Amino acid sequence: MDVVFLSRLQFAAATMFHFLFVPLTLGLSVLVAVMETRYAQTEDPVYLEMTRFWGKLFLINFALGIVTGITLEFQFGTNWSLYSAYVGDVFGSLLAIEATAAFFLESTLIGVWIFGWKKLSKKAHAAVMWLVAGAGNLSAIWILTANGWMQNPVGYTIRNGRAELTDFAAVVFNKFGILEICHTVPAGIVLGAFFVMGISAYHLLKKQHVKFALKSFNIGLAFGLVASLVLLIEGDLHARHVTQVQPAKLAAMESHWETTANAPIHLFAVPDEENEKNAVQIGSIPGILSFLGHHDFNATIQGLKDFPKEERPPVLLTFLSFRLMVALGVYFVFATILGVILKKKLMESPRYLKLMLYSIPLPYIAIEAGWVVAEVGRQPWIVYGLMKTSEAASPIAVSQVGISLLAFVLVYGLLGILGFYLIITNAKKGPEALPETA
Hints:
Elements: H1 3-18, H2 22-42, H3 45-78, H4 81-115, H5 122-151, E1 156-159, E2 162-165, H6 168-172, H7 175-205, H8 210-245, H9 247-253, E3 260-261, E4 265-270, E5 280-285, H10 288-294, E6 300-301, H11 315-341, H12 350-358, H13 361-376, E7 381-383, E8 387-388, H14 398-429
Antiparallel strand pairs: 1-2, 3-6, 4-5, 7-8
Helix pairs in contact: 1-3, 1-14, 2-3, 2-5, 2-7, 3-4, 3-8, 3-14, 4-5, 5-7, 7-8, 7-12, 7-13, 8-9, 8-11, 9-11, 11-13
């Protein structure tokens, strides 16, 4: 194992662990804001119960997101210093804006929300929660804009041996980044919705806190259905853009080897990275990949053979991750549609409630699989077409990265155990009795 591999493994482990908390922060903050707005409008104490209960889970999740996220930015200096030196003028400016204009704002507003219950009016306090949700999603937007630039670099020039920013607007309005935003934010809402529905289903199965759980479930259901449908529509737009700017990634997503018109998709495949002739492909449907990429069943799709072997992404991992993400995305649509059908008789539908309870982990899995497609499918480039990952790692000893990787696994493992213990314990306990003065 070399420095590049260990650095990639460390960054992947840290990022994927951190991203267990980020999308729930994005989605749950919006749902809590909706619940508190309903309380401000109706003064129904059940909505106050909901706001406090889901708000508490949100805060636990947010704290874990902060702790696990801070170390990520340090790795650009410790593990990826050559990358930072080469593209820091572009990438660093986006991270700086995220920290100063979004993250600090979000943290400050959360403090106001926590300590402002008795100091602000109901409507003002609800407005603060909307600002928290907006700042959290704004933070994600800047991070996704930075990642979108890595996927499709624009608005720069190479000067003095490094990439320098020349058109900030081009970077901000980069179509790849916008599509990532339009995919990741609804994915966070889907996660938040299934989180709320799953925990509400638990209490409904126990026949406890019934009014609270039904109202919570219905809010989660509405947002889950809309967001999951948005993901399907955006996914189609994203696939077409990937076809244009990252054709090798599309070919890997579909284990597509030969450049051909009327290109098929394969319901299942076992690609052979060394010899494409040995690839196993099952259930081919002609023309669907051409339609996916160009909205034309007869369009030509580039195959992996068109690209040098050293510039092909890992096919098996990209292919399987894409299949998993899409399958779960379709499941979310059907699960929420079924929920709408059963909405008025949830208490008489224990099988559906158990299904939703057991579905809590699925959006996490889908989101992680999506990021595997995005990041592994971009390889061997750290900035697509501009800088390879092998050129970006810091010139440090293998032992240094190995020790820090082990430390990350141990510390993050303990944080994960503690964090999920707190979330699960509080989720099972349910809402606490309301204080006399809200």
